[in-house]
Amino acid sequence: MAIHVIEFLLLFFIGPTLFAYARHRIPAIPALWVLTAYCLIVLLRDPGFDREHLWNAAALSENARSIVGLFALAAVIGIVLVRRFVPDLFLSFPRSKPRVWSMVMVLYPILSVYPQGIVYRAFVFDRYRDLFGPPWAIVLASAVAFAYVHIVFQNKLAIGLTLIAGVLFALRYLETGSLFVSSFEHALYGCSIFTIGLGRSFYHVSQTRKAARPAYSGAMSVSGQSSGSAIKP
User: Fold this and answer.
1) Residue 210: inside a domain
2) Long-range contact set of residues 8-13: C-beta below 8 Å, sequence gap at least 24
3) Which one has a higher pLDDT value, 157 or 39?
């Protein structure tokens, strides 16, 4: 149990903190893949882990209506808020860089979302179920770990949004036992954030820095954007 506590703190709090403030770092996507590889190896070596949880796409049909309905409501709210408070940002990414935006829409779910699901949902739920106990506690642990990694962006909006999203994605994984379903939902929200104009909250760290730092859990740097850009909600 003590080893699991230390491991949890190292992977999800100490590690991201060191990564965020280190002067020299490896690129974020490879860092995410290394972490994902470790988590996946641990999962596959655990005889009690049901490997069906890593995909289980059949569960999507039973949950598609609730996922799409909730997403549609959130998207409308997001669009209204962006157009009300920062209208210049609305659709700025697809309008200014349509080819890069298209690439992100395709690659982001594969290179960033699903690996994050392995780490923050499948691994956290299986590895630390005895440590946290009741389902609500493991959901909260998953969401907090997911949100904390966004400290690299150093803005309250990124942390707040990912904390709420982390609870939603963790609950979806808990209810469906499907990483495919929770990753599908994650991808919907992530792609919408970058599309409607809130993406800069996930790649802009500080106006005083010359370049923003991408996220420990797999920010996908986008070539062709200004310095300080990374994709990872």
Assistant:
1) no
2) 8/127, 8/128, 8/131, 8/141, 8/145, 11/35, 12/124, 12/145, 12/148, 12/149, 13/145, 13/148
3) 39
Structure-token match 């039973």, residue found:
62
Choice between 213 and 202, residue whose per-residue pLDDT is larger: 202
State the pTM of this model.
0.87
Domain assignment of residue 190, yes or no: yes
Token pair listed for 22:
């280190």
CA 15 to chain centre: 16
Domain count, the chain: 1
pLDDT digits (tens, 9 = 90+) for 42-52: 999 999 999 99
Does 34 score more than 60 pLDDT? yes
Length of the chain: 233
Domain, as residue range, for 105: 2-202
